[in-house]
Design goal:
This protein is α/β, with parallel strands linked by helices. 49% of the residues lie in helices and 10% in strands. It has 18 helices and nine strands. The strands form two sheets. It has a seven-stranded mixed β-sheet with strand order 1-3-2-4-5-6-7, sandwiched between helices. Strands 8-9 form a two-stranded antiparallel ribbon. A hairpin with a 4-residue loop joins strand 8 (263-264) and strand 9. Helix 12 (308-320) packs across helix 14 (337-351) and helix 15 (359-373) runs antiparallel to helix 16 (376-388). It is elongated.
Length: 431
């Protein structure tokens, strides 16, 4: 166990101190206990390092809103312990951390297993809406629905104690950290970078996984040059819990046969290897060629020097959601196209991106202005935007009450009716 500063993670070790280090990464809403059934067998060969995500399992609530942030915290923890090289297996969000490690710190990674993972987890809209649900209702709705997402129906019915454990695990997570993790998954997208993953990789998925199923697993295998696929029958999203023996066997086989050498048994550490002279041999070629994309070198720019259209499009999507923006832009034609570009560039790329007000404040101003103008259609999607920007339904109600005084009761009456419907839709967990 560990004391945990903000830039590191709560962790525990199991197994012999002189063995190679193997890290097991958890999924969103779980703790390191999701790996309990794998530890006895894995500690025969490896020193197992498990960690909790921020605000999970009693870990300090230091939210991390990006997978890269979680990855940096993991490496800071490992650096403090003198662990330089390791194998890594991660489930779902833990898998995203594994991909990030392979892309940004390949010299640290000896072998990789991605479980119930994806190069992009659903859509940004889905995860930001989940954040709205948690901000409004707490984690109880998410907790109660977790067994349906994590386990097959037969397993949940046959294992009520494990099902209840899963519910309580989510229910005791810090809501702010859960919301931040949703935001991290919302912006995670490495589909065009998979060809740069040069470490031996096993992609493991449950055959019944409805969250990140076999289709997403095959996308990973097609994109990663040295990757193999294992589909575990009769398992859903939380495969290590539902089929522990099968997952353990697959982990042992992969890490025993696909581990880059360099381990020094006298110190428990390794010297960092030099960069390979040529490409890593591919055991499985991608189904279609995927170009490697090097990180773009972008010079530092002050506000006002960036491409305002591209910035505006990014901000517009983050605030209003991909689905809304895609729908609006798809309807643009020769007549309205210039107007949509104008709105994207100046409203979203100039005003919404200015540093003087945060997005919560801008949502308050926008809602009030729309009430005053009687623009109910735009009030509807800006109410959704306000929820995404962090306003609670209670705070939106206060904005509309304030508007009633200064914009008129009839205008506010119509606004309350529109906002009430939007809030009801957005804060109810989708089945």
């Amino acid at each position: 166990m560990s004391e945990t500063p903000p830039n590191s993670l709560q962790y525990r070790f199991d197994g012999p101190e002189d063995a190679p280090v193997l890290i097991l990464g958890p999924s969103l809403g779980t703790t390191w206990h999701m790996w309990d059934r794998q530890v006895p067998e894995l500690t025969r060969q490896w020193r197992i390092f498990r960690f909790d995500l921020p605000g999970h399992g009693g870990a300090p609530a230091h939210p991390a809103g990006a997978v890269s942030d979680l990855t940096d915290r993991l490496l800071a923890t490992l650096d403090s312990l003198g662990v330089q090289r390791f194998g890594y297996a991660g489930c779902s969000l833990g898998g995203a951390i594994g991909v990030e490690l392979a892309l940004r710190y390949p010299e640290r990674l000896a072998s990789l297993v991605l479980i119930a993972a994806s190069p992009r987890f659903g859509t940004a809209d889905e995860f930001r809406r989940r954040g709205v649900v948690v901000r409004t209702n707490g984690l109880d709705p998410i907790a109660r629905s977790s067994p349906d997402r994590w386990f097959t129906g037969g397993f949940a019915a046959a294992q009520p104690a494990i099902t209840e454990w899963a519910v309580q695990m989510v229910r005791t997570t810090d809501p702010g950290c859960y919301i931040a993790a949703c935001e991290a998954l919302a912006v995670f997208d490495v589909r065009e970078e998979l060809a740069r993953v040069g470490v031996p990789t096993l992609v493991l998925v449950g055959s019944e996984d409805q969250v990140t199923g076999p289709a997403e697993a095959r996308t990973l295998v097609a994109g990663i040059p040295d990757a193999r696929l294992a589909v575990v029958p009769g398992a859903s999203h939380l495969v290590p819990v539902e089929q522990p023996a099968a997952v353990t066997d697959l982990l042992v086989h992969h890490f025993s046969t696909a581990w880059d050498t360099g381990f020094d048994a006298t110190t428990g550490q390794v010297a960092l290897p030099p960069a390979p002279a040529g490409p890593v041999p591919a055991l499985l070629q991608p189904a279609a060629p995927i170009a490697a994309i090097a990180p773009a070198v972008v010079p530092a720019q002050s506000w006002g020097e960036t491409d305002r259209y591209e910035t505006g499009l990014k901000v517009r999507r983050e605030v209003l959601g991909d689905a809304h923006v895609d729908r609006v832009l798809s309807q643009a034609d020769d007549f309205s196209g210039d107007f949509e570009e104008f709105v994207t560039r100046y409203a979203w790329g100039e005003i919404w991106d200015r540093p003087g007000l945060d997005r919560r404040s801008r949502s308050c101003v926008t809602l009030t202005a729309l009430v005053a103008g009687g623009h109910l259609e735009e009030l509807a999607f800006h109410t959704r935007a306000a929820l995404r920007n962090g306003l609670t339904p209670d705070e939106i109600r206060e904005v509309l009450l304030q508007a009633a005084v200064y914009c008129g009761v009839p205008a506010a009456n119509s606004a309350f009716r529109v906002a009430q419907q939007v809030i009801r839709e957005e804060t109810t967990l989708a089945e």
